[in-house]
Amino acid sequence: MYELLKRDGAARRGRLHTVHGVIETPVFMNVGTVAAIKGAVSTEDLEQIGTQVELSNTYHLHVRPGDQIIKKMGGLHRFMSWEKPILTDSGGFQVFSLAGLRRIKEEGVYFNSHIDGRKIFMGPEESMQIQSNLASTIAMAFDECPSSVADREYMERSVARTTRWLERCKKEMDRLNSLPDTINRHQMLFGINQGGVYEDIRILHAKEIASMDLDGYAVGGLAVGESHEEMYRILDAVVPQLPQEKPIYLMGVGTPANILEAVDRGVDFFDCVYPSRNGRHGHVYTKQGKRNLFNAKYEMDDRPIEEGCQCPACRRYSRSYIRHLLKAKEMLGMRLCVLHNLYFYNHLMEEIRQAIEEGNYKEYKKKTLEGLQGGK
């Protein structure tokens, strides 16, 4: 159940009650694609840096180690020793971005594994079955994620098929949740809005899926090449058409600036690989912009990554030491940068929630965006 606590303009401060605990929103989900955050980050680390939700991927876990194995191990929560909520992406995006040869049919998608080339079929029912085996808190509907530059005719056909697939996902999820051997019989289902940068297609699709009374709604197919301005334009058009009494999730987004802008448009959930990916390359986020710790000016800098930050890296280590680790290709350097970045994102969301509660979100957003322009 989603509980709306406060509005500040379109920005929403909410609470999603789940079988694995309460999620305070707006929230950033820390991305652990294969049931682990890249950069040697443990579940104890996630607890320490204030992670609320961990996100894993259906396609990757189906390919390796296999969802049947995870089910036999007691589900994803037991498998990775994480008690808080988990959201699993449906695998749709990976099918369309990773798989080389693929054939899209009404029943689903035939493709080859990106690991060993073996033939795989995935449709709405298969995606729901895999996610049920994983026993995540929130399952995402199986959709097609068409190219943002697809022509109008293709986009209309694709979105209509995604709607039909969503109906099948809902029916299969209801069936799976009724089975006695299902690990999580309270698994939630979020539907996904598609339509590229075509406002009218997006709005029509939002209205269609809004009538299905799902547990939450996502906006997919953005941050895949279109400009930030186009993304914000689509959010302005689509978010008001989605059920306001349900959580709204912007998939795969994004930068701190993207998050601040999207919250201002009514978005509650976010995920992105940026904090961990950038961290592994020595790029760290601060309120004064992004820093590249490989820069020579940090060679003798004994300050923490960000002064005042309470993350495990900043409480103990200097920019100079972390730069040395990165240059020496020591894994600890990557790990400390990833921990800092994830802490930064999680703490940013805490500040966002507080600003909405206090009714000064516009002022907070303006001040934070100005600081982020720094870049060092």
Automatic annotation (TrEMBL):
Pfam families: TGT. It catalyses: 7-aminomethyl-7-carbaguanine + guanosine(34) in tRNA = 7-aminomethyl-7-carbaguanosine(34) in tRNA + guanine. Residues 10-370 form the tRNA-guanine(15) transglycosylase-like domain. Pathway: tRNA modification; tRNA-queuosine biosynthesis. Zn(2+) binds at C309, C311, C314, H340. InterPro entries: ArchSynthase1/Queuine_TRR, TGT, TGT-like_sf, tRNA_ribo_trans-like. Keywords: Glycosyltransferase, Metal-binding, Queuosine biosynthesis, Transferase, tRNA processing, Zinc. Substrate binds at D89, S90, G91, G92, F93, D143, Q194, G221. Binds 1 zinc ion per subunit. Its EC number is 2.4.2.29. Homodimer. Within each dimer, one monomer is responsible for RNA recognition and catalysis, while the other monomer binds to the replacement base PreQ1. Catalyzes the base-exchange of a guanine (G) residue with the queuine precursor 7-aminomethyl-7-deazaguanine (PreQ1) at position 34 (anticodon wobble position) in tRNAs with GU(N) anticodons (tRNA-Asp, -Asn, -His and -Tyr). Catalysis occurs through a double-displacement mechanism. The nucleophile active site attacks the C1' of nucleotide 34 to detach the guanine base from the RNA, forming a covalent enzyme-RNA intermediate. The proton acceptor active site deprotonates the incoming PreQ1, allowing a nucleophilic attack on the C1' of the ribose to form the product. This is Queuine tRNA-ribosyltransferase. The gene is tgt.
